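User: I'm writing a tutorial on reading structure tokens. Could you give me a worked example: one chain, its sequence, then its tokens, then a sentence or two explaining what the tokens reveal?
Assistant: Sure. Here is the example chain.
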Amino acid sequence: MKARYVPISKVSVPMIRRMYEVYSGYYDNVGLELFCDDLSEKNGVLLVEDRASKRIVGFSTMKTLDLRAGNKTVKGIFSGDTIIEQEYWGSKALQVAFFLRLIREKLRHPFRPMFWLLISKGYKTYLLMANNFYNYYPNSTSHCERLEGLVDNYCDQLFKPYYCSNKRILDFGEGYTHLKSNVATISDEMRAQNDKIHFFEKRNPSWERGTELPCIGEVSYALIFKYPFALLGKLRRKQRRTPVPAIAANN
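And here are its predicted structure tokens:
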């Protein structure tokens, strides 16, 4: 697999049709018009493609915006619709491409604080942040009022009519796009074994009907320098767990 960033002006009609095909395979209540309207508000998209067939198998939309943090202006990188076909789950292509994009944006304004913004319908999206960022919100082990305030800021800026500030949940109402019932389900075993999944469900108990948990992670230089080594460690551990197929002896 490979992933590449495409500015929204370069996203073609065939690309959009294929992206919609992938997205509608995992979400209910997805209209093409709504999908296109949402895409038009983004700056670009990370496309995930199968190297052999060059077929789009996943994507993540992106938007940059300025946020106010006290008397400072900080930069936000918002991730919108994100999906990868199940056959390719476990690949790090999208994560690596997204990380490289964060570095590019950070170096454009090296002294301005920068944050990753996302809203999560399901636990898998939440875990992308919780498993990779040092300083993020909401966090099951610590609370940061500064990050909490920035969540309020970007939700008021992007989703004001739908933001329930008392619960810090986005509720777009009945009939909103939500994951299909067989995608990213949460079992009792998962709740018991993974505190972060259990925490996500407590913070967003109505996720199955499409409510979103707004999240934020700080893109610090510590993260930029340490993430490649953390990713390499994960890949090595995955390789060690993958069984090596037996080779039949020649007669």
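What the tokens reveal: The chain has eight helices and eleven strands. The longest helix spans residues 221-241.
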